[in-house]
Protein: Heme NO-binding domain-containing protein
Amino acid sequence: MIDNPPSFCPFRRPSLLPPSTTSGISGGKRSLTSRQSSIQIMNDEDDDEKSTLNLQHLNEAILVLTSPSNEAIQQALSSLILREKNNTATYRCLDKLPKNLSLCPHYAYLEDVYEIISLQKDIEVDTFFERIGNELISNLLSTGGRLERAFRCLGGDLREFLTTLDGVHDVLKYQENVTDEPAEPSEAAFICTDCDDEIIQLDFMTDRPAIAALLVGSLKAIARILYNTHAEISVTQSNQDQRH
Structure:
């Protein structure tokens, strides 16, 4: 639940996607207000923090949520297994995964993890991937740096972060279209709406079920680490969209 007073500095362009084709993720508190058309880019004075944030840096941050790198997922998985030493035997099914991911840059590592875990009767898939999502964000934000600044500039609290995420993602997709850059075959999308005074609904569309499962843990970790907020998140799949 979110207990901080709201601050409003969101950045948004109208979504290009119809809300009727979304799956829902909800969590949070307080009512949503209209969005402004600017975003705060913060400057620090440490090492690579001296550089000004731009849309590319924001894109890198959002990709952590929508398409994290194989290396980042592998590190998160290793951290989780190390943390749960008592369950080492349970995770031996993952030993078949390749160790050197640099040899196969286009390998769908996360999807293989998802497939292997889905076959295990003693592992609850959604809970497992929520933990990986938590480890993913915890690892990436453990040293601060530009990624943390990029996430923080999306909002002063969790509600503002989620509503701004919608608009920034739209702008980045628009920029790709303008520059004629090819879109990813399994492109994700966000639409954030307000349900009532205590719930934010984040409709997230993706063709990758593993990413949808991962996002719950990632958002909870962002809420906890960046905003000192406990987020309660429930996930449902839209009957109007076969994607996750």
